[in-house]
């Protein structure tokens, strides 16, 4: 893990097209602004984990019973 120190209004650039800026620091909370291309999903970790869990559950469900037309 790379650990960087930033002050309010300072930024970090990731992969030339993602900019993370410290917007506000209040007590033990830090607000970040993120600019990223529209095709790059950006989620809080708990949301990301919920999405992953849902996708894993879907792939593990047995397929629906196939129906065969009567001849």
Automatic annotation (TrEMBL):
Keyword field contains RNA-binding: yes
Subunit comment: Homodimer; the beta-strands of each monomer intercalate to form a hydrophobic core, while the alpha-helices form wings that extend away from the core.
UniProt family annotation: Belongs to the CsrA/RsmA family.
Listed HAMAP family: CsrA
PANTHER family in alphabetical order: CARBON STORAGE REGULATOR (PTHR34984)
UniProt function note: A translational regulator that binds mRNA to regulate translation initiation and/or mRNA stability. Usually binds in the 5'-UTR at or near the Shine-Dalgarno sequence preventing ribosome-binding, thus repressing translation. Its main target seems to be the major flagellin gene, while its function is anatagonized by FliW.
Protein name (record): Translational regulator CsrA
The species this protein was found in: Tuwongella immobilis
Gene designation per UniProt: csrA
